[in-house]
Amino acid sequence: NMENLQQTSRNLLVCDQSSLRHRKCRLSQQVQQHHFNHQVSLLLPECGSAPPPLDAALRSFSSSYLLRKLPLHELLDTHFLQDAVYQGSVYGLSYRSRIDEDTCVALLPSGQLVLSLDKDVYERLGVEGKPSRFNQRANSRYVVTVNLTDSSMAPGGRGYQRLLTGLKSRVQLQTDFLLSHHPGGGEALKALLSRYDWTEHRPQVSSRLLTNLPCPTPLTSDLPSCDPHSFLEWLGAVEAEVSCDNESTSFLSTLVCPEPRAVLSRALRVRVSGLLLPQDVYRLIEELRRCWDGRGTASWAALTVQGFADSPVSWGSREHGFLKGGENFYSLLLCSDHSYWLCMGTGAHDGCPP
Amino acid sequence: MRAVGGEQEPAAFERTVLRNASPYHYLKVYLQLESATTRLCAVELKQLIVSGLSSLFGEVGAALPFDLLKYDEEALTGILRVHSRGLVKLWSSLTLLGSYQNEACAFRVLQVSPFLLALSGNSRDL
To answer: Which residues 44-103 on chain B approach chain A with CB closer than 8 angstroms?
Structure first.
């Protein structure tokens, strides 16, 4: 059937157009809820180097710690609960395990522990969960969510004992695990780090100066002049270093920058990668805003934040899956008059962004 | 939803939800060749893919428009763009393409997304 051949899996793009000064502005929550980010990229037009405070914000993303072969029952260790989970926000994610085939684990700042398991492991674990939203027909994957800050999950409690026995003796799950803590950093994780093989992962920062960059115009508060998908395609081309310098009749590529367009003589792209905390992302946005305050210049900046494809959650505790790409990201176009345009994109196995 | 702007509210709040509206899909592909010394230029790579489309879907298939947005001749990796309704055809012909000038070859599809932005980083490589 030729009709079926033309169909693709679901994708969703949610765009908010507002201002940081608007009473309904939820940007802070939207950023904070996207827990597991692996890449942040900032595009600054007509700029050769980032202003010092902004540069400092880009270079001060928190480190994360990679623990090798961590038995998952260690996440229920009383010292770890007291020093890390009950204090501040802990971010943990299984490293290099694939959500479409392996066990994936996330520890959220809310204290929720999310285990995405295949049917076999789930049944052996013996803790109640739910079938994954995304393969209900096969029921081959289950999600177990427990809140470690709940009273029933306090050490010694019934729920706690059940999960501990499950992880310790029934399935003995272990995984490489990325951990980060806000605001405690490595200090809050000390007890756990002292017992396992670990390495510190400092976020990698790289920048690139782009010249003669075609750009849709105008990028102002009523913006942008083109539709969201065209704008994101252009931004994606800048990020992936794809040339838009083509003709509609070119053999290799017909990709062009949306009209109307202008050419930026230069633009700076700074990219940070690692396990990046939402707090640090929001601090960067605040810093951008501060850089413009007091200066009357009309300008904009584009910030793209990409989530881990194999995280069991995307925004908040919304279940996330892979299917074809596992994409979950947002792009923020922020203008110097505080107006912004936030585009949140997801693939097929994802809930609606907040 | 639109709020009327005033002194306190400098702009409106507007939300747009676009479902399955991406006009294109993007694929990051790697061409695996039997011999490590074989090299293809961008034009040859595009012609190879067109030949794959035509052998699977005939003349109509060969006319399926797609773009080779970027190509790294050394690494033999590239980014393709295709209209969303052509994705399945392009992907299936890449899968079934098995030879280049009598040499065995295979396309590995590394990443697929309705968003080009998603191809600028892969958390599986972190």
So the answer is: 46, 65, 67-71, 79, 81, 84-89
